[in-house]
Amino acid sequence: MHTVAFQAYENLEDVVARPSSSKSMLTEYFGMNQKYPEARKLLYREFPKHYRWIAGNKKWQPRKNKRSQIGRLVHAHPAEGERYYLRVLLNHVRGATSFDDLKTVNGKACGSFREACEQLDLIEHNRTLDDCMTEAATFQMPTTLIRLFATILVFCEATQIRQLWDKHLASMSEDYRRTQSNEAALEQMVLRDIRDLLQSMGKDIKLYGLPDLVDADGSSNFDNTEVTEERQVKVDQEHLDLFSCLNNEQLAGFNDIMDHVTNQKSQIFFVDGPGGTGKTYLYKALLAKVHEVAMTKRQAVETLDRSLQDIMECSLPFGGKVVVFGGDFRQVLPVVTRGTRAQITDATLLRSYLWQKIRKIRLSCNMRARTDPWFSEYLLRIGNGTEETIGDDYVHLPEDIVIAYTDDDEPINKLIEDVFPSLHTNARSREYMSTRAILSTENEHVDDLNDKMISRFPGEEKVYHSFDYIEDDFQRPSRIMQSMQRLLVARMLERGCSYLGSLCRPRRTPHFPSSLRENRSPSA
């Protein structure tokens, strides 16, 4: 079970018969376990610590040096089915000698990777999901239950979907029973709702073993649903209010972009401005989200251009769409592994064939530092490369913003006192805590700062235990969650679960327990 690349005209039987197609890191890992007893003590992800992969010969070879190597399995989502369950087994089963051996539990061969995971108690049992639906039915509306059921199908590891359906159909169809008494019709109505929800998440209801739909394709109905939902999108009032707060430069850019959108004119825009000039503020007035293109390799942007042209069947840039990019080339450029300055520059959008077709909107008024015009000009000179430098890499910082470094704790304490003056009396002030922060480039320094900050907070220290799980659409393995032992002072709401476009936005919120210590696993 691995990726094989081939040309469209090639015969699939010939492709499969190639030696290069039959060998992979995983199959050779099985082979090593068959030959060497010491290899059977290792998990697949631990293998690179002791063996080196020779790509040319497609084989593992024992390491001669003791340099630490980290092995990592390619991510898989529960919705991918057997590929996901294969990954789960590889993370827990040592010394497997074949795919069949990997599926064997206590001497009994299982019919699938999923069944093996169930036998080893590595995945969530259907009982847990049944309890979830039962509990939700006591206080949630039927429409919410239908959404929950669809979410379980896509994002959870339900093993007995038909039993779950049969048990909770009555709760999910309760609204429809007021106008419909025919059981078969009720079932079809709920199935159509679930089909639409699954389609919105890119899934097909036929994959889940539910009863058959009478109008199985249902494409026209879903198309109408999508159009209706798009027309009913609610815009937050805070985004509507942003328009009235734009400065003259931002307003000119806003009007130019909206003119092209309203009149359906194709154009690419690039909002250029140093940090603090209000690029993000303008983005929010226009769009829900836009990425910083200055840090993106031009090849990715060019690929998007070709894809949209292909999808829209239009030769205009980005298929004739109005596209708004933004960024600041004075800051971080694309990352090119071991790249020279010329290679890094060549990877930027400035070197793309698209750059000459882009209309530039330039922002120069630093809104963030408008009360300190000298500092604003100082930052601009650094960004433009006109500030006097020491050699090629250093600039001289004003003495009044520098704390001299020494080997003791005095500089750190001085930094904390300057940023958080009178912390003891303001520790429970929401405004005080949310308007100041200390940034660092290294986690080691962050940990040290957090230790010192927490020791200064008044009150009793409490330890909070995690359940090693984040409820969002990014599946984070529990072994990664259990390894996190970071100190937290402010909590981050990190959830992106979407029900047909309804998002819970991440936000940084100050939280004031007596103090927060390590985020430890209960099993630690």
Helix amount = 40-55%
**Text of the CATH class of the largest domain:** Alpha Beta
Beta percentage is 5-15%
The gyration radius over C-alpha positions equals 29 Å
Counting DSSP E segments of at least 2 residues, the number of strands comes to 11
Instruction: Based on Cα principal axes, name the global outline.
Output: globular
> Order of strands in the sheet with the most strands?
6-5-7
Question: Under CATH, the topology of the largest domain is which?
Answer: Rossmann fold
Q: Please give the largest β-sheet.
A: 3 strands, parallel
Compute the number of helices.
23
Structural class: mainly alpha
Mean pLDDT value? 78
Tally of distinct domains: 4
Question: What is the architecture of the largest domain at the second tier of CATH?
Answer: 3-Layer(aba) Sandwich
Low-confidence stretches: 216-220, 486-524
What does this structure look like?
- The protein contains 23 helices and eleven strands.
- A hairpin with a 2-residue loop joins strand 3 and strand 4.
- The chain is globular, with a radius of gyration of 29 Å.
- The longest helix is centred in the middle third of the chain and has 18 residues.
- The strands form five sheets. The chain has a three-stranded parallel sheet, with helices on one face.
- The C terminus is likely disordered.
- With 524 residues, the protein is mainly alpha-helical.
- The protein folds into four domains: 108 residues, no CATH class; 106 residues, no CATH class; 132 residues, Rossmann fold, CATH 3.40.50; 107 residues, no CATH class.
- 15% of the residues are buried.
